[in-house]
Amino acid sequence: MKDLDVRINESLDILIENELLLGPELKLMLKSFKEEKTTVGFSFGKMCFWHYEAFSSSINPDIYKVAAAIELLILSFDIIDDLQDKDSDYSWNKTPELSLNVALAMLVMASKTIDETSFEHKRAAIKLVDEYALKSINGQQLDLLNSCRDEDSYVKMITLKSGSLTAMGCLVGEVLAKGEISQEVEEYGKYIGIIQQIKNDIQSLKAWGPKNDLLNKRYSLPIIYLLSQKNDVSKSVSSYYNNDIVTDLDNNATEDALTNGGAIRYAITIKNVYKFKALNYLENVAINQVGREYLQKLLK
């Protein structure tokens, strides 16, 4: 069998090429945007495939189309997120008005593609896609409002924004195979997204550039922890967030407080809590070894 990433990529190419309702300009942009994301792999499509395989007695080749459809939806969300945050150097940020049309086309194509497959339970899959996509959009709205400033509200937000999409990738594969979903898959699927978001939050703070959450006055678990401390650095950061000072932050002191003051360790601890919860659920699902190892890697 061909490498799974290759099969999903080929299915994406076919979907784009065969979509008769798209004009040549939209197709060209869609292809180029897809190519920019190809290098990072198709993790959501692969989660869909492996969960379909785990619960199915035989492989319907249409599963590659569904995996590609899931990747179209995820890419559309990535594009919209980047356009809203304005912190990406991907090509779609250069022409936001045109790129938004491409993202909208991807959203429609995702459901349309699943509906055109031969799966018995395709309507249940589309319902799941709609439900979890709306949850993610709600989470994205909360993230843009930047109002989640304590651990509980922040974790709820990233559960909606990121956890909903990773859970969706897993659950669509499961429901296509057996017409129903299980709590185990939903829970660890959700935790994968939480863990990945916390890892991104930590990574954001490692470079003092345009994507740094602290410099952009965004809230994340390490920053929430830092602001809860009663010391000179936390007071300075709080003043910076509240626009009480216009001078630059002391980058060295702030970075030291994040790294050595417990903020990063705190975020890693929260991440590991969800990692062990996910692993406990994963033990009860009969995914093949390759898929299991890939999921375990996402949980690290």
Automatic annotation (TrEMBL):
<keyword id="KW-0479">Metal-binding</keyword>
<dbReference type="InterPro" id="IPR000092">
    <property type="entry name" value="Polyprenyl_synt"/>
</dbReference>
<dbReference type="InterPro" id="IPR033965">
    <property type="entry name" value="ComQ"/>
</dbReference>
<dbReference type="GO" id="GO:0016740">
    <property type="term" value="F:transferase activity"/>
</dbReference>
<keyword id="KW-0808">Transferase</keyword>
<protein>
    <submittedName>
        <fullName>Polyprenyl synthetase family protein</fullName>
        <ecNumber>2.5.1.-</ecNumber>
    </submittedName>
</protein>
<comment type="similarity">
    <text>Belongs to the FPP/GGPP synthase family.</text>
</comment>
<keyword id="KW-0460">Magnesium</keyword>
<dbReference type="Pfam" id="PF00348">
    <property type="entry name" value="polyprenyl_synt"/>
</dbReference>
<dbReference type="InterPro" id="IPR008949">
    <property type="entry name" value="Isoprenoid_synthase_dom_sf"/>
</dbReference>
